[in-house]
Write a structure and sequence with these properties.
The chain is mostly helical. It is 74% helix and 0% strand. The longest helix has 34 residues, at 70-103. The radius of gyration is 26 Å and the shape is globular.
Length: 291
């Protein structure tokens, strides 16, 4: 027996516990990529935002202009309200879908997931033009309502309204919310819900007291993802209009129309600050749930 044990020990690899010298170099391509295409552009953007037009010294005049001018403050407010509204609607729509997907879908779960991510498989340009084809003055919906069914006398004005912009963003971003919540709901211990019901709690009370609190992490993660993507949405607002003047639209105008790169850099930095605030919020939610 001693001989077999000795042979087994000889076949097992020897773990010295010393870190391999070459392992850090495995991350080198990713680090170089981030430095070249993320960190350096950010540093260049930040530098452009504080260098005056004559290139002499540094100035915070553009930041003061953006953070005090009512026009830019209104643009920041519209950006935050649009992102927040889309996030709230995605949460209200996404939670019931995620709950059904995890608890009741069964064999239909694969089909539901495919239907959820199907909008993401198409080009954003084609997807947005699809909304125009549907809701234009002489689009399919108005033709159907006015000419075919005769339900209304005049075509509905849906294009160039904030409601259509919100609907198109929700259509694209709700999968992020559903998948984030579903991932957390799958980890909820069903015995906790059964215990609550055995103690006399109704299904609704069990959901409010057990299921919903345990799934807040998924709601928080989904909310951060949706908010950050909606915060930087640009193509949808350009093609569908809606009369909104969000920061991404103003940045585009500064780069392509007025060509004021310094002011565009300032607005980009402000937009980045909003995104970083969302990341900090996410970290706080994760730490609180893990405590």
């Amino acid at each position: 027996m001693t001989t077999e044990a000795t042979r087994g020990a000889a076949r097992r690899p020897v773990l010295t516990g010393r870190p391999s010298i070459g392992r850090p170099f495995l991350a080198l391509p990713a680090v170089l990529f981030l430095l070249a295409f993320f960190v350096l552009p950010l540093l260049d953007n930040g530098l452009r935002s504080v260098v005056p037009a004559d290139g002499q010294g540094l100035t915070a005049a553009r930041y003061i202009q953006v953070l005090t001018d009512p026009f830019y403050l209104d643009s920041i407010l519209q950006t935050v309200l649009l992102s927040g509204g889309v996030t709230l609607i995605c949460a209200l729509i996404g939670y019931p879908v995620a709950y059904y997907l995890v608890r009741h879908a069964g064999r239909l779960s694969s089909l539901i997931i495919f239907l959820l991510i199907a909008p993401l498989l198409t080009s954003i340009i084609m997807r947005t033009y699809g909304w125009q084809v549907l809701f234009a003055r002489r689009g399919l919906i108005n033709t159907w309502l006015v000419q075919d069914l005769g339900l209304i006398e005049r075509p509905l004005r849906v294009l160039d309204t904030p409601g259509l912009v919100v609907a198109s963003l929700v259509h694209v971003l709700v999968p992020f919310m559903v998948l984030s919540i579903a991932a957390v709901l799958q980890g909820v211990d069903r015995r906790l819900e059964e215990s609550a019901q055995l103690l006399g709690a109704s299904p609704w009370r069990t959901f409010l007291s057990v299921t919903l609190p345990l799934s807040l992490d998924g709601i928080g993660t989904g909310a951060i993802l949706v908010f950050m993507v909606a915060n930087g949405s640009f193509v949808t607002l350009v093609l569908l209009g809606g009369g909104l003047k969000t920061l991404p639209l103003l940045i585009y105008q500064q780069f392509n129309t007025t060509r004021d790169f310094g002011l565009a850099s300032v607005m980009s930095t402000v937009l980045l600050a909003v995104a970083l605030a969302c990341l900090v919020l996410q970290l706080r939610l994760v730490r609180r749930s893990g405590a």
